[in-house]
Each structure stands twice: as C-alpha cells, then as structure tokens.
Specification:
535 residues, 40% helix
Length: 535
C-alpha cells in the first residue's frame, strides 16, 4: 500500500484519514515494514516521485550499456526491454518496427545500417525517458492520436500550469487487414485500444476480484518456457508467431496468442501472460500472474523425459520460487491474498495419451487404457493437492481434448486424414470421466477451495466437426508445411513454401495446435461458461 500526498503540508492529515479507515475495519499494519515521509521509491516496477511515475534508474543504466544485438536472441531480449517500458515510449510501434521486422524474417541474421540507426535512436530516447504525470481528480484530459501506415499511436495528456504532460502512451503495430483500414478507422482503433486497455471483457460477479492468472501444464498454455531448453519441443522460430505482435516468434505454439493470453485479456488483467522463465520478465509481471507451462509435458513422469522438457514437479518448484519472489515484493499477507484469489489453471494429459501411450507405445505394454487413465488421474490429483497446500484456492483443470481429431493423430494413429481416430478419443473420454469425478471429490473436501472441471473435449469436437459454423474451412489439416505431421521443429521456416497464406481458414496451425482464431473461440466459450464456478 502506498499513500501519496500532493502537498507535504497535507501528509499528516492524509495519514490520519487512512488510519481511521484501518481502525474502522480492524486492520493492522506491521510497524517494522512501514516507511513514512518517503520522497520517492520503487513501486510495482516503477519509480514513484513527487514529479510523477518514472523509469527506475537501474533500467536506464541497463539501457545505456546495451550493445548492438549480434543474433536473434539478443534482438528478442531488446524487444522484451521495450515491452516492459512501453508506456514510456512515444510511437513505440514505429520506433521498434525495424527490430520486429528483423525477427520476422529470421532467414539469416543481417544487421544493417537501418537497424543500427533505429537502435541508437531508441537508446538515446530511453536514456532520458519522459516522466508520466499523475492525475488530479475531475480534471479534463486530452488524447492525441497519430495514424501511420503500419501503426496507430495514442497519448493521454493533462495540462499542468499551461504545460502539457504525458500520462500514458499506447501504440500498436497493424497487421493484415488492419493495414488497409481508412485513416479514420485507424483512429477509432487507437481509441478502442486505449479504452479497453484496463477494462475486463468479462465482468466478474459478486464484486469479486481475480488479481492474477497462473498457468501450469503443456504447450497449449506455454508462452515461452521451453525457449531455453535443449529440446526438439520448441517453437521460437517462424512460422510460429507470424501473427503475434510484430510477427515475432515467442515460443507460443501457434501463429499468435494462446489460451493463457486470451484468459488474462478477457479478465482485464493484462494483454499477455508471460513465461516465468522469460529472461526479460519484470518484477511487476509477477503480481498479475505467469505461465509455468512447458510444451510436451504431462501428468505421466515419463512424458516430459521423452522430449526433455519441464515436468510438472519442476513447474511446482518454479511456483514455490515465484511465491518467494512475490513475498519479497508485496509481503506475505498480500501474497496469500493473490494466491487465494488468482485463477490457477492446469492443462495436461494430451501428450500422455497422444504421445506416450499411442505414438511411442511405451506405456501400452504395462497398461490398458483404463489403468493408464488411473495413473494420470493419481498424478493430477496429487498435483492439485500440492497447489492447494501452497495457497491456491481457485483451481481449474482442463479435460483431455478429442485427441483423435488433431491432424497428426488422424494420420499416424487412425490412418486417415478425413476421419478422427477412435482410440485416442475413447482414451480421452475414459480419462475425462475419471477426472471429473475426482475433481468433484476434491472440490467437496478441500476447505474453501473451488476446484473446477473444465470440459474442452466437447467444444473442440464441435469446432472440428462443424468448422463452417465458426467461420473455418479446413479442420483435418494444419496450416504449416504438408499440414499433417509438422509440429515444433518440424514446422519451420524451411516449410514456408508449403505453409498456408491464410491461417484464418484453418482450425489448426500445425499438426497438433489450434490457430489463434480457434483458441479465441474456445476460450470465449469456456470463460463464459465457467467463470461463475470460480468466484
């Protein structure tokens, strides 16, 4: 909690008002953790001073010491820094467009004079970033909008004794059809972007709050944790991410956003859910949630070992580390509140059933489908209990999808591109039936917990079997490559001649993962149906 007074002479009075409120509701403060009469200080990743909101000096020094990027990874690090300081950067989409274009090409790293000039200009700008002004009650604000061929920009301004001071910058790169908008339409888009920037699309009932979203699981909700692994289960290269901000591959297994991103966006928390292992992660990002998920993992301990990714047990260790960092930022009491009120999701079982059981056949010698489902169920139940023991109280667990209907399973297990493979679908249904009953038991027996079974099997099955109903044309093949078996490293820039030009027609982007458009449809259905079960 920060109490900021406009005038020093009013500070004691303001403190008195706050103490009266604390006494009224019988709230207490730990005196050893309180500081009074502070002229400036760090708060939520920014420096708050009498002048306004500023960039932390350490960040300015880090920017000043930046060297010319030597490879795509260092460009990604640069864009991560830019994203963290976006609200301070005027015309950020224009200033940073060369870097995003460079990442989008990815066909041999060539650093030209154009990029060097843009880099130097950005460094000079960020070495003296503007100070964001604070608001006065009931004052009139001004919005200036700029429209460029490939971007829209908006800055919110207030007047201070005849001087205009910025409050917030908003900037967006335009993609596909947006580039063809008329200037007036682009201006309207900029206004809409600002108006919905902090507003939830889904209204939380009963005056409840969801301060953060925390993700565990596999590639469906992995937002980049696999990038630093030595594993074939990665996608930090084109054509992945081609419809993401700036066309940048981030480690998300799709052409754009994934369910993690849409969930935080729909709940009005933030635009994207960052990966916990992202080196550019900022302390303030922890307050509103992260993804611990790792593409290729599962409930079966053998599943992540096959492809050398992060098992759920290690994701749990990362979560414990996250809790420790959170306590260091906001204290134990606020951390406990965040954990209890956050929406925690677990998305697993797909790789277990599709890969470990059917494709490799490793578990078939030991288990039939019902007994393998029991193995997965036992692991899932224990994982949820551990999350509960660490403070999570709102836990949503995704069912297994209709795995026999993904392009790779149709061909490799079912032997046909036109029909869904029956056995993987039956295995998903067996596991889902057991999972639903176990989650109901946990929901009834874990005090103050809301453990929710989230059915994704039926929404995805309807999407795949009735694609035209949702505006798709192709559901039995992916957009990438030959469109039947390519996934992860097999879906790469070498396949660009075969990769589709219009992924909006496709339910799947590669042979396993849906497109951004399909994900958005699914998440909209799920959050509308299940949000009341969480609060």
């Amino acid at each position: 909690m920060v109490l900021k007074s406009k005038l020093v002479s009013n500070h004691v009075r303001d403190l008195g008002d706050v103490f009266e409120i604390l006494r009224k509701y019988r709230l207490r403060l730990n005196a050893s953790k309180c500081s009074f009469g502070v002229g400036s200080g760090k708060f939520l990743g920014y420096m708050v001073t009498h002048r306004g909101i500023e960039v932390i000096p350490d960040q300015i020094r880090a920017i000043h010491s930046l060297q010319l990027p030597r490879n795509p990874k260092e460009v990604q690090k640069l864009t991560g820094i830019i994203a963290a300081l976006n609200r301070f950067i005027s015309r950020s989409a224009n200033r940073c467009r060369p870097f995003f274009l460079l990442l989008n090409k990815w066909k041999g790293f060539v650093w030209t004079e154009e990029y060097a000039l843009a880099f130097q200009q950005l460094k000079e700008y960020l070495s003296r970033p503007p100070i964001m002004s604070s608001l006065e009650a009931d004052e009139v604000l001004f919005a200036y909008i700029a429209v460029a061929p490939h971007a829209v920009i908006l800055v919110l301004i207030r007047e201070d004794n005849g001087t205009q001071r910025p409050i917030y910058y908003v900037s967006k790169s335009l993609h596909k059809v947006e580039i063809r908008y008329l200037p007036l339409e682009k201006a309207v888009l900029a206004t809409l972007l600002f108006c919905v920037d902090q507003e939830a699309v889904i209204q939380i009932p009963n005056n409840e709050t969801v301060p953060a979203v925390i993700m565990f699981g596999d590639s469906i909700v992995d937002t980049g944790n696999n990038n630093g692994l030595i594993s074939a289960m990665k996608c930090d290269f084109p054509p992945y991410g081609r419809d993401f901000n700036g066309g940048m591959p981030t480690g998300r297994f799709s052409n754009g956003k994934v369910p993690s991103d849409f969930l935080v966006e729909e709940l009005g928390i933030k635009d994207l859910l960052p990966a916990y292992r992202d080196p550019s992660l900022q302390p303030k990002d922890l307050l509103t949630g992260v993804s611990f998920a790792s593409g290729g993992t599962g409930y079966d301990p053998l599943t992540p070992k096959i492809v050398s990714v992060i098992p759920l047990s290690e994701q749990l260790q990362d979560f414990k580390q996250y809790i420790g960092k959170l306590k260091g930022i906001v204290g134990e009491e606020r951390t406990n509140f965040i954990l209890a009120k956050s929406a925690v999701f677990v998305v697993a079982s797909s790789n277990d059933i599709a890969n470990t059981y059917f494709l490799t056949g490793i578990r078939k010698a030991e288990y039939d489908i019902p007994s393998y489902a029991d193995l997965l169920l036992n692991s899932a139940s224990n994982f949820i209990k551990e999350l509960y023991g660490l403070g999570a109280r709102r836990i949503g667990v995704f069912s297994a999808p209709p795995l026999g209907c993904v392009p790779s399973q149709r061909l490799l297990v079912g032997g046909s591109e036109t029909k869904c493979a029956k056995q993987p679908n039956q295995a998903s249904q067996v596991f889902n039936d057991k999972l639903s009953r176990e989650l109901g038991y946990l929901n009834n027996n874990l005090p103050n917990a809301k453990v929710v079974y989230i059915d994704v099997y039926n929404p995805i099955l309807d999407l795949v079997t009735n694609p035209k109903k949702y505006g798709f044309e192709i559901a039995n093949k992916g957009c990438c490559g030959t469109r039947t078996v390519e996934v992860a490293i097999l879906c790469n820039q070498l396949d660009h001649h075969h990769t589709c030009t219009d992924d909006s027609k496709y339910v799947f982007f590669d042979s396993y993962h849906p497109t951004e458009k399909a994900y958005k449809i699914i998440v909209n259905q799920l959050i509308t149906k299940y949000i009341y079960n969480f609060v």
